[in-house]
Amino acid sequence: TISILNSYFYYRSIFKKNISNNCIIFQHYHSNAIKNFIFKKYGGKNSCIIQKNIHSLGFNCFYYDADILFTFGKRTADRCIEYGGNFKKIKPVGSFFMEYYFHKDNSTMNLSKYDIILLGGNGNKKNGYMDIYDDQFNDYKTHLNWIVKIAELYPNSKIGFKSHSNFNFKNSIEYEILKNTKVDIIDPKINSYKISNKADLIFSWASTMILELRSINKNSFFIDPGGRNIQFNEKTKYWSILRLTTYEQLVKIVDGSINNKINLTKNFYDQNSNFCLDSENTSKLIFNELNKNTA
Alpha helix locations (H) across the chain? Predict the structure, then answer.
């Protein structure tokens, strides 16, 4: 009750004095039905949310509420709807963040070229908020160990681990497993989009960039030992082209890229729009949609 009252009076104090046609938030998991009701009460037209990352299962995955949901791709709203999302319109526009950090970033850096990059996230700890099934932490460690084995299997390949810029690597399970191995630790301050674009293969346990990089037809995949990581991976046919659930699958992908120089996703280019549209003009697409709905 206190939370409901807090939301009501907080948003009432904002929208009573600040009237607009559109209200937009870039974190889709922070939608609020009370906020939207009060926004409309004081003359607002479109309450909108922008998809920021993968729709992961957890404490904040239920009952999103908005007039317009701007998504990465054609199918990335499926889970939002399945778990109670309420939207008048779903508009695929690409990635708001990839537009800014990749397409609009004109900075020049002398970046290393990697055969394989493993993208990290915010870290994973035993009994942490992301540890939601019995074997999850073991599966997470397994995906790191698979990359260590790949580095030993292909000693002449350049393989790196790239974490978030604010990630405390030295006090992590990633550090414990990857230290003193053939896997390079990439400077976390380097632009993840830019360096991934120069890599032949990009893997991750849960990074949203696996979806985003498909918009530029990169060879990006989730490593999901045992196929149990449904927190971040959907058990659907269209999603299956992203998931590597066995070590043998991983080796086959790596071998195809390193030894045979195969463009592994070429046959799936027409499916990449399910995950993320070209993000070069995401802001313009959002603006045009808002302008159309308030004209």
Answer: 2-15, 33-41, 78-82, 96-98, 136-153, 173-178, 192-197, 209-212, 247-258, 282-294
Q: Is pLDDT at 126 greater than 80 in this prediction?
A: no
Q: Which of 104, 118, 111, 117 is nearest to 189 (CA)?
A: 111
Give the residue from 214, 195, 245, 194 showing the smallest Cα distance to 184.
195
Please check the confidence at residue 276 and state whether its pLDDT lies above 90.
yes
Return d(Cα 108, Cα 41) in angstroms, integer.
48
Report whether 179 contacts 161 (CB < 8 A). Answer: no
pLDDT of residue 293: 65
Structural contact between residues 48 and 76, judged by C-beta atoms closer than 8 angstroms: no
Average pLDDT along the chain: 89
Residue 260: CA count within 13 A, CB half-sphere: 9
Name 189's Cβ contacts closer than 8 Å, sequence gap at least 6. Answer: 165
Return the residue matching tokens 């607009």.
20
Label the pairing between strands 65-71 and 159-162: unpaired
CA distance 237 to 218: 20
- The predicted model gives 256-264 an average pLDDT of 74
Give the DSSP H or E segment for 92. Answer: strand 86-92
Residue 172 has pLDDT above 70, yes or no: yes
In this model, does residue 59 exceed pLDDT 70? no
Q: Is the pTM of this model over 0.70?
A: yes
Q: How far is CA 217 from the centre of its chain?
A: 16
